[in-house]
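The following block was generated as part of the benchmark described in Methods. Ligand: NAP.
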Amino acid sequence: MSLVYKADPARGAEWAALLAAKRPDLPFHVWPDTGDAAAVRFLAAWVPPADLMGTFPNLEVLFSVGAGVDQFDLSALPPQVPLVRMVEPGIIDAMAEYATMSVLALHRDLPAYLVQQREERWKQIRVRTAASRGVGVLGLGELGQAVLARLAPFGFRLSGWSRSRKAIPGVACHAGAAELPAFLAGCDILVCLLPLTAETRGFLHAGLFAQLPPGAGLVNVGRGGHLVQQDLLAALDSGRLSAAVLDVAEPEPLPAGHPFWRHPRILLTPHIASQTQPETAVEALLANLDRHARGERMLGLVDRARGY
Ligand SMILES: NC(=O)c1ccc[n+]([C@@H]2O[C@H](COP(=O)([O-])OP(=O)(O)OC[C@H]3O[C@@H](n4cnc5c(N)ncnc54)[C@H](OP(=O)(O)O)[C@@H]3O)[C@@H](O)[C@H]2O)c1
């Protein structure tokens, strides 16, 4: 019975050292080394091999090394093999940091000041209080809720939107399509932390931007596929949106010359809002292997019908 890791090899080496210390009885291989492929029961992958079951005929569990699973073709995965996404504190903490940084950057007009600095222009923009600003998070899962908790001390009006209803102290929670307009109307800054599914692809589009307060700011830390790029450019041009912080794009990296690279009101980072941390990820994976051995439900088990 063995575990194979198929993602960044440098981090694979870190996983190897951690597993050797924590679970020396579990043979571990970093792709392309697989050991005896018939003995591989567990695969931790960013992208699985094309012929997954042909490669590992006795696979029992497929783990995503990332929080999302949109890189997997769910229809191509055999139904008997559970797919488990990564839920670990390293990803969650880093996302809470990045989203807070982005919300504060938009709240304190950082994109406008970066432009002014390049132009050697000393011009003050009136400071707005946090209490006068509504910050809303699309997606109230592991990450969305952690972001809202980290934002709470700043004093923004906080709100969130999800498929099923949530109750979070200090957060106005909205659920389902019927409550989306009321949610959007209160978002001076909107943070996208939805998973990318058939339902959420292209979710950040002109029709949604039109329902935000004029001059709202956008933070996309979900996936590039959530955003209709031309609609963002048009909304920034018209002033419907004031600025955007984008950590994700489609494709990644963006091609040379893409308008996002040099747009004065887009802050762009290369998908670094959060990263799986080997130490805590290995702990989380081992805890899930224990749950699996006991016949319990694993944390982060993906519902294939919903796509997340
Ligand atoms: N940029 C980065 O570095 C980075 C890093 C990690 C993750 N991410 C992205 O963040 C995403 C969210 O991660 P997570 O761990 O918070 O996921 P999660 O725990 O599965 O939460 C997803 C949330 O989105 C809601 N949702 C999904 N589809 C919806 C729909 N059609 N309508 C309304 N709400 C919907 C869910 O509603 P319910 O609660 O009702 O199910 C849930 O609240 C990941 O899928 C990934 O794409 C990005």
